[in-house]
Amino acid sequence: LKMSWFWLYLPLHLLMATFLCHSIKSPTTSSQQSLKTNIFNFYHSLMLADGKETTIHLLKDIPKRYYFVLEEGRVLTPFSVTVTPCDVPIEWSILVYKSPPAKAAPGHHDTQELSKSQKASSVASTIFNYKGNSVETYMGMPSHPALYLLEFFSTERDTHITVYLTTDTTSGHLYPELPADPRIDVVGVGPTTVTLAWKHSPSALQHGDSIQYCLLVNEKHNYKSLCAAETAIRSAGVKMLPSLALSLSPYLLEPQQVMILSNSQLSIINKVSSGEVRQVCVGTRNTYTVPSLSPGTQYYFDVFIVNLLTNASAAYTGTFARTLEEPEPKVTELKDGKVVHVVLDGKKQKFYTLQYQARHKKIHFTFQLCRGQIRVHITRNGKTVASENLSGLRYFSLKGKLLDTYLVQLRSTEESNSSVKVQASPHFHKPLFPLLPESLKIKSFSKLRTCRSVTIAWLGTQEESKYCVYRKRIEEDQIWRELQSADRCSGPESRHKSEKVLCKYFYDLNPQRAVTTETIKGLEAGTLYLFDVYLFGPSGIPVRYHSKAVKTRKKC
């Protein structure tokens, strides 16, 4: 039998007749019925493209058939069929139709002639059958020209699959190649991170420019293919961006999606009912630390090797890991009158906890905000008694019972680091900070500015206190940075001696008249200066007024 691809363009009944006429000279009733069935199958089949991935949609309980032909020139040349289920398990099989062995010569009728049933069965035979949701590949080595029929069947629900047929297995692979050991190793676990590593794909080592690894993280289960993962996420009502489109603008994201940048890698988080599904492509790196996970949560990790040119992918063997529980916050004991300086990490957004056991009924809590923005939450025996954002210097006077337990929780409300000084003391205890005026602002008088001097004023109190003035020359583009980075808890000891202008004592029993002015001389014309005033109380701990920037006149 001589075949060529020309035969593919013949009507299917002629094609079948050509293959079957050599099989049965005078078919019996049973073989006639088998022949009718085979022809019916081919009439309801489509030709499967060679060298191209085909997407096939399956309806529940309705088989779908595809066929392909191997001509005489392809004999003894291997072919392969790869089927990727994209959702539920399916059943698929390969049947081959070929001519049976020639009839034996006369004289050997009793020993070599095939029975009628053998003749009928030799026309079609099943050479492969599989049921499941794994990616499976069948490799065949034909010895005769033949027609092959592929039958696909879904019993659970409507679904879709991809099928790849190639009769040229020597010219390269559509799918990237997996390493001999395709497992993903979990090399590190923390409360919010998991570090993964996997062996390099031979495809990545040979064609690094067109290959990349993509990672999928979810809280449900592992996926055996990228196709299956995308289908599951879409079925949850979320549009999943393609792995190769992670560099798209954030404005293209769906409402349920969040884009994050971590470790210089862009990842997309899909918010679904079953938890988060995160995608991230990491180029040809074979290790990655997944950030921003929830403590005490089990996650499933899948790695796919993706061909950027064909969009074909292969899946590593997925793994899972449970993040560690968040450690109990460390509790620092507060002692009467002792000052505790707390520095808070704004990026981690964690609470810092202080505990104080009252030895008196009336208690004072004092907070001096040094840098940044901080939220304070105070409880007494588990019940909230105060909660607010701190600003400058803040006192809380609380009344309870002996041996009441107070917990003070502090948290930075911005991404940069924040710091605060905290003191707890009985009502009669010597105050940590001096009596403060109504405002800690410094005022300057524009009309009193000259080329060599400026005049500033600030409020005082009813008790005699010491005030020290400092100045610092700055550039105009440094104002914002100086004001943001200033540590409002630091005293004059952090300043250079040349910046000190003067120190003075004053007070006034009438708060309305407790104001003082000072003219600072010896300045340079057209120059910007930053002025600070420090107030010292009986304890010697200073309170810093808000810095004031003033520029001298350029011409006088």
Automatic annotation (TrEMBL):
<keyword id="KW-0677">Repeat</keyword>
<feature type="domain" description="Fibronectin type-III">
    <location>
        <begin position="176"/>
        <end position="313"/>
    </location>
</feature>
<feature type="signal peptide">
    <location>
        <begin position="1"/>
        <end position="23"/>
    </location>
</feature>
<keyword id="KW-0325">Glycoprotein</keyword>
<dbReference type="InterPro" id="IPR045805">
    <property type="entry name" value="NDNF_C"/>
</dbReference>
<dbReference type="InterPro" id="IPR036116">
    <property type="entry name" value="FN3_sf"/>
</dbReference>
<keyword id="KW-0732">Signal</keyword>
<keyword id="KW-0964">Secreted</keyword>
<dbReference type="InterPro" id="IPR013783">
    <property type="entry name" value="Ig-like_fold"/>
</dbReference>
<dbReference type="InterPro" id="IPR003961">
    <property type="entry name" value="FN3_dom"/>
</dbReference>
<keyword id="KW-0524">Neurogenesis</keyword>
<dbReference type="InterPro" id="IPR019326">
    <property type="entry name" value="NDNF"/>
</dbReference>
<dbReference type="InterPro" id="IPR055271">
    <property type="entry name" value="NDNF_Fn(III)_1"/>
</dbReference>
<feature type="domain" description="Fibronectin type-III">
    <location>
        <begin position="434"/>
        <end position="542"/>
    </location>
</feature>
<dbReference type="Pfam" id="PF10179">
    <property type="entry name" value="NDNF"/>
</dbReference>
<dbReference type="InterPro" id="IPR056225">
    <property type="entry name" value="NDNF_N"/>
</dbReference>
<dbReference type="GO" id="GO:0005576">
    <property type="term" value="C:extracellular region"/>
</dbReference>
<dbReference type="GO" id="GO:0007399">
    <property type="term" value="P:nervous system development"/>
</dbReference>
<dbReference type="Pfam" id="PF24354">
    <property type="entry name" value="NDNF_N"/>
</dbReference>
<comment type="function">
    <text>Secretory protein that plays a role in various cellular processes. Acts as a chemorepellent acting on gonadotropin-releasing hormone (GnRH) expressing neurons regulating their migration to the hypothalamus. Also promotes neuron migration, growth and survival as well as neurite outgrowth and is involved in the development of the olfactory system. May also act through the regulation of growth factors activity and downstream signaling. Also regulates extracellular matrix assembly and cell adhesiveness.</text>
</comment>
<dbReference type="GO" id="GO:0008201">
    <property type="term" value="F:heparin binding"/>
</dbReference>
<dbReference type="Pfam" id="PF19433">
    <property type="entry name" value="NDNF_C"/>
</dbReference>
<protein>
    <recommendedName>
        <fullName>Protein NDNF</fullName>
    </recommendedName>
</protein>
